[in-house]
Amino acid sequence: MSYMLDPALRRDLTEAKAALTRHGIVIIRALETELEPAIMEEVRDSLESSPRKLAQIEEDDLDKFVEQLRKATERPSEELRALYTRLLAKLGTEDFQELAKELEGIDQLFKWERVSKVAELVNKLLGSKGFKPIALEGPGDVSDDFALEFAERWSAAFARFKILVEKAVEEISHQEAEEESTESAVRTRKKKR
Which residues contact residue 85 at a Cβ distance below 8 angstroms, ignoring those fewer than 6 apart? Predict the structure, then answer.
């Protein structure tokens, strides 16, 4: 059955969904353009912090190693962008009850801990050659704009959207209860005849 949401709530939901999607797209674009360079900059710092180990590696081997590190960054970064794209697509559903269940998982995946996992393979490779692991401590290590978008704007937009989805679910539940009560009253009247 189709439920009629309050027009003001529907409008607010549409605006909140658009804002959240917009912030999500900006985050995905930043991951595309800024995350890999930030990781590679940290890799360079790691390599330069151990000049003796670096000097022991021949130039051709170093080039191959750096390329291997770059590839180790690309794949997890692409997977993260694909994951975030799928999560944003889930926001498009009109089934608010299903969406409410999904929101907790979406919120957990749009956390810095998930983004920083992109560097795990890079750290294993660095460790295998005796270099110190890189440490991306927060969104600011990617860029200031990314930190603002990821840590502040996304969080605020997500919180607003979640509250509105919960209101929609509450309204739908109330309508379902009214409908069931009406149907029950109709059945009772039919039985009395």
Answer: 28
